[in-house]
Design a protein that fits this description.
mainly beta; 11 strands; four-stranded antiparallel beta sheet; about 110 residues; seven-stranded mixed beta sheet
């Protein structure tokens, strides 16, 4: 059974930092598409935050480039998202994705 379990979300003040983790079990890392998405509004689409693609190419959305860093540790079966200088507009549910599989999401709330 494939499982992706995110953790590390929470409430943080603007300018603060968080690190999200996603532990993956039941499958291997995807070297086609693996990364983080977020949904800012109920019922809205999940938008790309950061992705590993083919040949380890990393893509960031314009809104997070320079503030967020994606990384992965295959030995620990874990995908990470390090977020710095967080802004209120980063408030969202963050999801990890590995090929066709999704985690359940973790809430990040940025507020004074």
């Amino acid at each position: 059974q494939v499982q992706l379990v995110e953790s590390g979300g929470g409430l943080v003040q603007p300018g603060g930092s968080l690190r999200l983790s996603c532990v993956i079990s039941g499958t291997s890392f995807s070297y086609y598409e693996m990364g983080w998405f977020r949904r800012t509004a109920e019922g809205g689409p999940r938008e790309v935050v950061a992705l590993f693609g083919i040949n380890n190419k990393i893509t960031y959305s314009d809104s997070v480039r320079g503030r967020f860093t994606i990384s992965r540790d295959e030995g620990a079966n874990t995908l990470y998202l390090h977020m710095e200088n967080l802004k209120p507009e980063d408030t969202a549910i963050y999801y990890c994705k590995n090929a066709i599989h999704w985690g359940q999401g973790t809430l990040v709330a940025v507020s004074p």
